[in-house]
Structure formats: structure tokens, C-alpha cells
Amino acid sequence: MKQQQTITDIKGSFELRNGVHMPYLGLGTYQSDNDQEVVNAVKNALQIGYRHIDTAAAYKNEVGVGKGIRESGIDRSDIFLVTKVWNTDQGYEETLKAFNASLERLGVDYLDLYLVHWPVAGKFKETWRALEHLYAQKKIRAIGVSNFLKHHLEELIEDCEVMPMVNQMEFHPHLVQQDLINFCADKGIQYESWSPFMQGKVFELDFCADLAKKYNKSVAQIILRYNLQKGIVAIPKSVHAKRISANADIFDFELSEADIAFLDSLETGERSGPDPDNFNF
Question: What PROSITE patterns does the annotation carry (predicted)?
Fold first, then answer.
């Protein structure tokens, strides 16, 4: 199991294997429109105190994310900015081009974290080689993967020069994948969650409502606190200022070990997103 990490406040972080500090709570921007919607979401989050913004080339909102960062008034060096290389851009040379295109859209000259979005068979190793090159050039402070199951990681680790520092996975009470969490912890790979709310389904579950009542918190706050106490970085997506603020109000309570174990026990293997072993995009 991952060693218990200290959870302090919205600006707190977990330390990656190379010493870079990754804020453990961030703003996700999946399905946030590349217009004033995402600009405002990013500005609101940064002004509330978030220091971690997650996007991807596939979200087609990098321009808006970059604009939100510039308009926030927060210094770029204080922000942990993440984007991802999309599947159709995978391969060595293609990834280098895709990286430069992302930087241009974002209006920045480096990234804090760059991820391989999905494990495209026959390509992700060459894509990773490109990330290693960019990391060696200090154009990225940390490199990692997304949606990589254990066998994908094992294949990548076989002959990589730099170990992945992060693995961003679908994670929620119905898809805990504790074996994968443990594997990543053993390898020094920081686990990160996407879709922590099961694309909204978590709000319909009675047991979450019961926990919310017990702790006098919202279901979203319970789930995000659950992520952090398991040592998992969380990037809840929202475009609403009140919700972005509420998602950060998770530092004045602590879930009991029994309640964390209870949430873990709800594993069903149900995915709200695609299966990393069976995707066709």
C-alpha cells in the first residue's frame, strides 16, 4: 500500500518519483467547451486556490485553458499544467509534433506533466520514447500515462529509460482496481483518478448519501476526500464556480479507515468510460 501522505489544504501536493510536487486536487476540463466556459472555469479554479489544471489535445479546449491561465493573474510557475497526446498522434515523430502543437495552443513554453492518453497497441512505446526525449530536454517536468493497465505498464517498463511518474485511471467506488493501485505504488508511479463521480452515477447511490449525511458533507466531497486519503490525485471536472469551490472544501474532515474500506468493498468492475483493453479510437 502507498504510504499515507499528508493532506493539508487546496495547495497541498504529493511528491512524484523525480521530486516534482503534483497538487493532489486539480480541475478537470473534459467536455468543457473551448470558449468562455472553459476560460471562466480555469480562472475561477485558480482564483479559489487550485494550482493544478488538467486538459488534453482530444478535449479541443487547450486554447481556452491557456487563456484562462493568462487571465487568472496567477504566475505560470505556480500552476501545474497537464495535457495529453491523443491516439492519432502517437508514434515518435508524431508525438513531438503533437507536443509542440499543444504548447502553441496553450500559449506556454513547457508542461508540468505530459501523458500518453491511451495505450495504443504497437505505438505507445515509441510515443513514450518521444516523452523521454522531451523530458531530457526539460520541456516537461514530469511524464506519465493514462489508462494503462498492469500489463501495459509492464510492457512499457521492460525497456523504458524513464519510468512513468503518473498513471491517470478511471477510479471510483465501483472501479477501485486495488491491485493496480498497489502495483503503481510499488513502482513509484503516482495514481490519479478520472471520472471520480462515475459520470454522475455516484450521486444516485444510497451508500454515498448515507456517508454524506454522516459527515455533513456533499457526496462529491466524500468521494474526493476518499481519493486523497487513498493517496490518489483527483481532478474533478466542473464549469460552475460554486461547484468548483465546493469540490475544494474537503480539508476540514477525515473519513474513517472503516469508511474507506467500505467504499473499497463496493468494487464491481463497472466502468463509466472505455476499457483500456478494448477501445477503438
Answer: ALDOKETO_REDUCTASE_1 (PS00798), ALDOKETO_REDUCTASE_2 (PS00062), ALDOKETO_REDUCTASE_3 (PS00063)
Q: How far is CA 209 from CA 158, 178, 204, 215, in A?
A: 44, 23, 8, 10
Which residues participate in catalysis according to the annotation?
A: 59
pLDDT per residue as tens digits for the range 11-21: 999 999 999 99
H or E stretch at 166: strand 166-170
Q: What sign results for the dihedral spanned by CA atoms 129, 275, 25, 62?
A: positive
117 marked as binding residue: yes
Compute the distance between CA of residue 5 and CA of residue 3 in angstroms, rounded to an integer: 6
Question: What is the rounded distance in angstroms from the CA atom of residue 140 to the CA atom of residue 151?
Answer: 25
User: Cβ neighbours of residue 206 under 8 Å, at least 6 residues apart?
Assistant: none
Contact in structure between 212 and 218 (CB atoms under 8 Å): yes
**Superfamily (CATH) of domain 13-264:** NADP-dependent oxidoreductase domain (3.20.20.100)
Domain boundaries, the chain: 13-264
Q: Which grid cell sits at 122?
A: 504497437
